[in-house]
Amino acid sequence: EAGVVQSPRYKIIEKKQPVAFWCNPISGHNTLYWYLQNLGQGPELLIRYENEEAVDDSQLPKDRFSAERLKGVDSTLKIQPAELGDSAVYLCASSHRGWPQETQYFGPGTRLLVL
Amino acid sequence: TQLLEQSPQFLSIQEGENLTVYCNSSSVFSSLQWYRQEPGEGPVLLVTVVTGGEVKKLKRLTFQFGDARKDSSLHITAAQPGDTGLYLCAGGGEKLTFGTGTRLTIIP
User: Fold this and answer.
1) Residue B95 and residue A45: Cβ atoms within 8 Å?
2) How far apart are the C-alpha atoms of A17 and B22, rounded to whole Å?
3) C-alpha closest to that of B94 among A23, A98, A9
């Protein structure tokens, strides 16, 4: 069974430019998460989807970050405009029924560097 | 905000030695998970503990959940180079709260 797929794996952009990350969860998983992970730290939740509905976006900086999960499958996370402090790894995870009942499976992440 | 502090932050030991990593919080969690993350990859779940005082073993790894469900420990016996990685604890509740991480390096 394929795991969580993320693309691109790496992205280098200049500050003030837009950037988008894509995530394809494990087939059949209705819950999708986006996390931000700074170097050497634990992941921090940005947004959680149950199917196509964002049920927890309290930690998403909505002035520059946006996310969507059309049709309740793939998801896109966008930053516009990017700032130097956005340099981090952006992880996507999915689970079958949502925390705390099920295990979250993480993708490899997208490593973003903002210059 | 629930915080999970892990100690030590960095640990480098020789192959064959034993080690313990700690995860502490002032908050009570309904469950506690441990993950290992290798460079360039996402975290991979090792274990979930849900009962205060619970002990689980996974080959050379022993996980314990504190009686009050505020802390946890991970003990590795006879560490091997393949154990190298970032170890993360994560507390369960309405959402998963990750700890600060312990970067472990096993020297051959």
Assistant:
1) yes
2) 41
3) A98
Find where tokens 């689970």 sit: A95
Kindly state the average pLDDT of the residues B63-69: 94
R_g of chain A computed on alpha carbons = 13
User: With bands split at pLDDT 50, 70 and 90, how would you rate the model's confidence at B2?
Assistant: low
Task: Please state, as a whole number, how many other Cβ atoms lie within 10 Å of the Cβ of residue B34.
Answer: 24
Residue ranges of chain A whose pLDDT lies below 70: 1, 98-101
**Is residue B102 within 8 Å of B39, Cβ to Cβ?**
no
Terminal C-alpha separation, chain A: 37
Task: Label residue A54 exposed, middle or buried (CB < 10 Å: 0-12, 13-18, 19+).
Answer: middle
**Rounded CA separation B45/A32 (Å):** 16
Question: Which residues of A are less than 8 Å from B44 in CB distance?
Answer: 106
Side-chain half-sphere exposure of A19, counting CA atoms within 13 A: 25
Residues of A with CB under 8 A from a CB of B: 4, 40-45, 48, 56, 91, 93, 99-100, 103-109, 111
Which residues does residue A101 pair with via DSSP β-bridges, in sequence order? Answer: none
The answer to whether A53 and A70 have CB atoms below 8 angstroms apart is no
B80 or A56, which is more confident? B80
Give the dihedral of Cα atoms A101, A102, A107, A108; nearest 10 deg: 90
